[in-house]
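Researcher: Here's the sequence for the chain we discussed earlier.
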Amino acid sequence: MKRAVAAIGALLCVTVITVAAQADMVDNPFGYFNVYSLGDIGSQGSPYHSDFQGRAGAAGNVEFSSFALLNRPTQTGFALHVGGSARLTGTYLGDIEAGGDVALGGVGISGSVIAGAYVAQFGGGTVGGNVHAGLGVALDSTLTVYGDTLAGMQYAPAVDHQAVSEYFRNTSALIGDMSQTGSYTEDWGHLTFVGAEGVNVVIVSAQELMAASKFTIDAPAGAIVYVNVPDADVTLDWTAWNYEGGIQAENVLLNMPNAGHLDLSSTNAVNILAPLAATNFDAGLVAGTLIVGDLQGGGQVNLGKFDHGGIIPEPASILLLAGGAGAAMLRRRRLARPTR
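Model: Thanks. This is the structure I predict for it:
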């Protein structure tokens, strides 16, 4: 009886989390994810190391080491969505879901861990919520789980990564096809674009952007500025992004619709959309949303978002679970004895 009550409580908790996540996602996927990779983040033998301040996701696999996922500003709900498998060390403030396996070692997770396959460990740590796995759980006493530990759970992802990836690709392509509304000026490495109310589009070459020491966006409050970089290979090092005239960083998007390769280093305080780009971000800082095709390295991403992602129809199918459908994630395929 106690076990049944606990399961019902966990079900209601996850359903509420999922409904909240759906509302955020449908309204603005850019605002929901601080970092998203259409492929992997990190790789076997070369895990990603550093920290992200906001929610993260990857359609492929994730490998984090010496990492912190701060999930600001609320630090509740999902902190990490993974389509494949995840191998994690470090601090995670929120819930974690992965369609494949989850391996934990030296972790501090404030929420729950939900896996489509197995949850295992290669080190100790703590999980503040539940551990639920579609196939099996293999944990020992060096990893403390404060909630329920259950195997044989039916798994249904909270995020449709195929839909998310398609959304970002389509958005980037549509912005990239927009006609230029104005041009920038250049003065000794200082690029300046003066925009008007409404939507503004400017095209900058990768070479010019790489050479720039400063990029000023001067536009009124409420304006939207798309900075399109049409090149296939892009390298960004330190550029001082300066916003004047009332416009804020959340209204500016640096879009790279054709970039197959992106090198990032040093500091860029701008939202970046490069959904096809294999990205090397060895060190440095992006202060804004970072959406790429694949992400390797150890650069830091601070909290930021692009507030105007609705240029294509809202992706109602991106979040699969809501209301009663959320119950499927926690419905056991078979009776399973809790393991610790």
